[in-house]
Amino acid sequence: MDLSIILTYRCNSKCSMCYIWKYPTNPKYEIDLETLKKLPDGFDYINLTGGEPTLREDLAEICDSLYPKAKTLEISTNGLNVNKILPIVKKYPNIKIRISLEGIGYTNDLIRGEKNGYEIKKEGMQKLIDAGGCDLGFATTFQDENIDQIVEIFKYTNNLNIEMATSALHNAFQFHKNDNYIYDRKRVAKKVENLIIEMLKTNKPKNWFRAYLNLGLIKKILGQDRLHACTQGTDSVFIDPWGDVYACNVRNDLLMGNLNKQSWDEIYYGEKAKEIRKMVSICPQNCWMVSSAKTSIRSRIHYKIPKFKVIYWVLLNKLKITLNLKINFEKYIDYNDIKDDSQINKRVFYLNETFKKQLQGQESKNYKQLDKYFNR
Ligand code: SF4
Questions:
Q1: Atom 7 in ligand 1: which residue has the minimum CA distance?
Q2: What confidence tens digit (pLDDT) does each residue in 212-240 have?
Q3: CA atoms of 141 and 165, how far apart (whole Å)
Q4: Closest CA to 228 of 313, 310, 140, 311
Q5: Which residues line ligand 1 (CB under 6 A)?
Q6: pTM value?
């Protein structure tokens, strides 16, 4: 099973889709190494996330403690403090590092409120490559503002021989805001088709299966049912900086227990966990974030072997791309079934003009283009 540990709610980005940075945790009360040592061995993945995990002084010690407990240990970072990660990558070259990248140049910087963020991430990724990291990648959240660039981001990652993880804008209790909506659902969904095709064109099986995950994202973007049922609480859980264990990070009513006060077994095998799993089984949210998507497509044979239906889709469509045939997306996606969002409150961009101009740098053309999205 997978585990995501939110090490801190402190963050040095100022993302437009997540306001964690406005509500930082006090480091004194963040989950400590001794509590994390209570976790058993044998996880498939452990993802260290935040907030921004590199703001934890003890990140290297946490990695030393958790690396042996998972087949894959991941750090999800904004990439602004890569020097903190470099020694970890040198020590554990196969540790998985995903740097959030929301666009090329100014697009990233405006969406994430990061001055020179794009350049810093690019340089940081190169340092990680030079340090010998062998499971590196960028992670991008699809939204109206960056959807025209996703193929370009993919080609950039592919040229570097690194990965591109994807998700779509969504709401979650930990974001401290609930107006993360995609406005032009059909346009955004159609652009994802292009990414799927590009991924299938490559010679990397990992990309082919990611293409399938992106098919699921199209359904999420359009507001349709998931491709596979959510198994959060069973196959994947979240621990927050106060040690609270949740089935997922979207609903705060799916609280299973607290690792400061209970043992892992008491939480995971307890009565409360059973009750929460029943709630998950009828959850109407239809999320398709990485954690709940990748666990739901797994077969029970091995965590790296997908379900037969997924393998079939991948092989069939890889063959079509190889033979220069078109993928019939209409067979998988009903583009007449698009959730009606006419009643939603459109989000207000929080950055004031002065800050936006500081981020703007030389790219005034892009700045004007993006403003059409941010100043609705
Ligand atoms: S679908 Fe799964 S991940 Fe989404 S809110 Fe429900 S339980 Fe959580």
A1: 280
A2: 999 999 999 999 999 999 999 999 999 99
A3: 9
A4: 310
A5: 230, 232, 247-248, 250-251, 280, 283, 285, 287, 292
A6: 0.91
